[in-house]
Amino acid sequence: MEQKRIKVKDLLVSKAYGSEVNVKGWVRTKRGNKQINFVALNDGSTINNIQIVVDVPSFNEDLLKKITTGAAISVQGKLIESAGSGQTVELEAISIDVLGVADPEKYPLQPKKHSLEFLREKAHLRFRTSTFSAVFRIRHAMAFAVHEFFNKKGFFYMHTPLITGSDAEGAGEMFRVTTLDDKNPPLNEDGTINYKEDFFGKETNLTVSGQLEGELGAMALGEIYTFGPTFRAENSNTTRHLAEFWMIEPEMAFYDLKDNMDLAEEFLKYMIKYALDNCMSDLEFLSKRLQEEEKGKKADDRSMELVEKLRFVLANDFVRLTYTEAIDILRNCKPNKKKKFKYVIDGWGADLQSEHERYLVEKEFKKPVILIDYPKEIKSFYMKQNDDGKTVGAMDILFPGIGEIIGGSQREENYDKLVTRMNEMGVPTDEMDWYLDTRRFGSATHSGFGLGFERMMLFVTGMANIRDVIPFPRSPKNAEF
Ligand code: 4AD
Ligand code: MG
Q1: Which of 30, 60, 231, 470 has its CA 20 to 30 A from that of 308?
Q2: What is the pLDDT of residues 147-205, one digit of tens each?
Q3: Does some domain include residue 183?
């Protein structure tokens, strides 16, 4: 009789030598000779494989031929202490069933190193590689850590809508949602499309942020957070941008900018600590992979070892400074004076590009940086207007290797100031009357921020391209799978 299936992760720490167990998984490699075969089997529960030892003469030759890279098999075997170094147990095969073959002529993944670019085209199978299984196990752990952190703090998880009529960031980077016939849409008298006839009776789009609705929740429940997909139709084909990404947006009543910064720093550190405490074997694998990849680079260009980098961020306070202080540093720094930046900083008011953010973090401070009090012109309408009349209570958190990982602010709670700013920036006050109600009735200081989940994943895994930390990336000209 077949024993109950045990996951590889549990088997590898089992000491029940001599007992009979069953494992199921996918073959990573098979090697050996006419007498003995070694099959490395992985079931996704851990980065590590269980080694199956097969006494070749006692098995059917045809069956053994079907055990190739990618095949799914079920193995009944005896747990034995491993003779080989590096592993503690292996399984002596008693019987093997091939559940699903993987014709080596056709199976795209060979038992060799494939490039990340190649694997991106095979994203439906890349989960089966060590690298991507590690990344996606960590992704799960990070998502779990998000909920654990906020739950412990008494925040409420709020589901904000994905379909909305508003543009929370006011940047106009939205995907339209419509059921109108694109060949024959209903028209107004002036020839424009009549959205009153559309499904929702108005123009709608996929949300760029759950913040505005999140604020409504916070102004009643006190502290809420969202964690869901957000969509941006910005044509940024970079290693840091996706058209569909996941964002965590906490929103807190009675928090000012300082409280907001403290929470964000605590949150980021909590997630990093969670990864160190719960994902070490995956992190170690990714670290080795990274070091392998960087072998050719000069010592100066190599990044800090992954686990060391995570511990370093955990152990140090983030640097906090104002936009104005940052501009002074940037204006006078070498790469700016030598015009090495693509966008040279010539004065106050310039929007910071990722090259500037990374200079501050990687060269100037060598630590995560929280930048506050940005010029109001380069930030969204909802941010708290500072007394200087020029800046707003924004906060961006900049991370090494990433640039901006968090964007947030204290919110403008004064009705008149908010309406004035909305009018100045062309944000429709009539359509957003519901938002303004929080300022009309029981308004109070409140703050929040948004963490790009995939940017956090880039940092924690050390992966270089954001398309490699989300299962099925959506980016300009790419919506495969
Ligand atoms: O700075 P952003 O645009 O801020 C907001 O959306 C606010 N409503 C957040 C808030 O205060 N509640 O975006 C927040 C974060 C960025 O710092 C970045 O990490 C990530 O979201 N992000 C992206 N990640 C991947 N691809 C993109 N296209 C992204 N755009 C923003
Ligand atoms: Mg931002």
Answers
A1: 470
A2: 999 999 999 999 999 999 988 888 889 999 999 999 999 999 999 999 999 999 999 99
A3: no
